């Protein structure tokens, strides 16, 4: 719902006696003709508190101010709803979509079910699997049905597979409905093969035969087998290449690859490249280096230098190789891939941050450096290549004031009021927008933090659009002690908006976990608010590694009762003061 909020429906059908009057019944969500694959949907709106609001002739529960957000089940196709308040009436049509694959007619493959669905490239001898969904008469797998695929001069039988559960999207974790679903009634046929030599095999041909009737359909993607002696080598061309666990944005992020990183391509899937150390990257963030051989390097000595606010560790390499980072309490680990150690000497004097540096060759071509730290709390890091030399900057703890003066003196905070401009964010039942309340509370919070001596940098101070990339860049450039992004929450279509409320904290980098947990507990206890929870979440404003970065959801715009607190000026002041106090107490606890 959050992406669609801020659209107020005023398409009421009014009786003639009120045709010229200002409509007092408002439904913000859903707008008419809204389409969703959810099995239920909530209606968000408001009307004066006197009288009843009926949806399809049934009275609904409302807050003291008259706001409402009841949920209703949906069927496939058109769902018609009539919302009535006194003599005002609103008709809304919601279209229920089928999330399962489209059922084919007769003997046929399901639409868009043939896999691979895009061009792929694999290594010689690597398993290549094919799949198809088909609905056949007389059950899923009648004895006289035959499904196969022909690739070059091979014919591979595709056999019916045991049913597998379908997993919900990641958003299901936000509603507590993240349970697997039963598989569709379509039969899932799969089969695999290998090809020993490099070749361009073209598109596979899928075939389905039943009772003497045969259909043939070409696959969407071509199959190529790479030559191990001529594997492509690429270089990352963007500042921070996004490495993932698989070939699409559905897969999880890994440690970003600094600009200049080189690696060998061992596979392709559509526009995605598989790298020699196992990660995938979008080809748009790379360029191929013609004639380059697979990147390998040795490493000998490791250097370091102390800067006023960071310790830089310098790794001289022959070529820029992929890396990964793992943070834990009191330790920072950096792994270099395609690297072999020839290390005999490392100099590391007494350092304000690092207690000891350990290293080991964990596997052929994989060296791990572990920085044992003097304090559990980490304050951010940066990775870059200077030519072929990898530079890791570990930030020192900020200079924190003592108890005799303001504790947050010299403590810089980037404060990010979420959304802005055309990006309105969520909406409350009155149509009041999240971007506006985010800015109000952020300014109040800024004032409270300044009173404690903090230096506060705002990503926006008015209603303007600031991209997520721009917000991340501000954090990187300012190098604050911490970064906070201020938001107010809403739910996916099938969320229980009447019951779901509370304060929530979101983190991604381990260095931000302590701050997220502390603020969650402090604010909930201080204000007596319900707790929505603490979430590890891959969000643009929790991903920055330059500083502990936390996103706070202060309450639910979609909950009728909590919305009244969200827009109450006195409650906004209390929230800002509680967060500021929470930050101060957290700093006191980690200094």
Task: Give an account of the 3D structure.
- There is one protein chain.
- α2 (434-451) packs across α6 (569-590) and α4 (513-527) crosses α6 (569-590).
- The model is unreliable at 3-20 and 138-143 (pLDDT under 50).
- Helices cover 13% and strands 37% of the residues.
- The protein is mainly beta and 591 residues long.
- β24 (262-269) and β25 (272-275) form a beta hairpin.
What's the pLDDT, averaged over the residues? 92
Low-confidence stretches: 3-20, 138-143
Percent of residues in helices comes to: 10-25%
The gyration radius over C-alpha positions equals: 29 Å
Major sheet details: 8 strands, mixed
From the helix content, strand content and strand pairing, which structural class follows?
mainly beta
Q: Report the total helices.
A: 6
> How many beta-strand segments?
43
- The shape is flat
The proportion of strand residues reads 35-45%
Distance between the termini: 41 Å
Regarding quaternary structure, what we see is: single chain
């Amino acid at each position: 719902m959050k992406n669609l909020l801020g659209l107020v429906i005023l398409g009421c059908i009014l009786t003639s006696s009120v045709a010229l009057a200002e409509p007092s019944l408002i439904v913000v969500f859903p707008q008419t003709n809204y389409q969703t694959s959810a099995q239920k949907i909530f209606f968000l709106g408001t009307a004066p508190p006197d009288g009843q609001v009926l949806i399809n002739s049934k009275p609904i529960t409302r807050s003291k101010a008259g706001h409402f957000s009841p949920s209703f089940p949906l069927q496939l196709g058109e769902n018609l709803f009539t919302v009535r308040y006194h003599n005002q009436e609103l008709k809304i049509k919601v279209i229920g979509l089928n999330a399962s694959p489209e059922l084919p007619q007769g003997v046929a493959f399901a639409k868009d079910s043939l896999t691979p669905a895009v061009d792929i490239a694999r290594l010689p001898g690597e398993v290549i699997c094919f799949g198809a969904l088909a609905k056949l008469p007389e059950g899923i797998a009648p004895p006289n049905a035959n499904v196969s695929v022909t690739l070059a001069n091979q014919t591979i039988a595709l056999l019916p597979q045991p049913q597998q559960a379908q997993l919900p999207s990641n958003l299901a974790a936000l509603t507590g409905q993240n349970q697997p679903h039963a598989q569709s009634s379509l039969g899932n046929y799969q089969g695999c093969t290998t090809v020993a030599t490099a070749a361009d095999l073209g598109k596979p041909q899928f075939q389905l035969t039943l009772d003497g009737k045969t259909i043939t359909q070409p696959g969407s993607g071509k199959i190529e087998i790479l030559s191990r002696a001529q594997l492509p080598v690429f270089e990352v061309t963007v500042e921070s290449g996004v490495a993932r666990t698989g070939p699409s944005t559905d897969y999880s992020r890994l440690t970003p690859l600094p600009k200049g990183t080189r690696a060998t391509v061992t596979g392709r899937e559509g526009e995605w490249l598989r790298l020699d150390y196992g990660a995938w990257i979008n080809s748009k963030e790379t360029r191929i280096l013609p004639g380059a051989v697979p990147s390998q390097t040795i490493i000998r000595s490791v250097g370091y230098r102390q800067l006023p606010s960071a310790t830089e560790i310098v790794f001289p390499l022959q070529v820029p190789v992929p890396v990964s980072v793992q943070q834990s309490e009191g330790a920072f680990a950096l792994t270099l891939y395609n690297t072999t150690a020839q290390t005999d000497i490392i100099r590391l004097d007494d350092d304000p941050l690092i207690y000891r540096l350990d290293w080991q060759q964990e596997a052929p071509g994989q060296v791990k450096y572990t920085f044992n730290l003097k304090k559990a709390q980490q304050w951010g890091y940066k990775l870059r290549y200077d030519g072929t030399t990898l530079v890791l900057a570990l930030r020192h703890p900020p200079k924190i004031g003592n108890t005799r003066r303001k504790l947050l003196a010299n403590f810089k905070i980037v404060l990010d009021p979420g959304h802005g401009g055309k990006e309105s964010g969520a909406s409350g039942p009155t149509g009041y927008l999240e971007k506006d309340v985010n800015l109000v509370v952020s300014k109040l919070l800024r004032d409270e933090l300044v009173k404690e001596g903090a230096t506060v940098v705002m990503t926006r101070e008015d209603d303007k659009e600031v991209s997520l990339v721009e917000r991340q860049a501000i954090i990187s450039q300012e190098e604050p002690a911490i970064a906070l992004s201020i938001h107010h929450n809403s739910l996916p279509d099938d969320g229980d908006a009447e019951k779901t409320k509370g304060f929530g904290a979101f983190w991604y980098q381990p260095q931000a976990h302590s701050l997220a947990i502390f603020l969650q507990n402090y604010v909930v206890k201080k204000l007596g608010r319900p707790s929505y929870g603490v979430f590890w979440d891959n969000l643009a404003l929790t991903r920055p590694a330059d500083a502990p970065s936390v996103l706070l959801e202060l309450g639910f715009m979609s909950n009728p009762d909590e919305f009244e607190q969200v827009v109450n000026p006195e409650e906004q002041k209390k929230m800002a003061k509680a967060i500021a106090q929470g930050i101060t107490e957290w700093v006191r606890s980690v200094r």
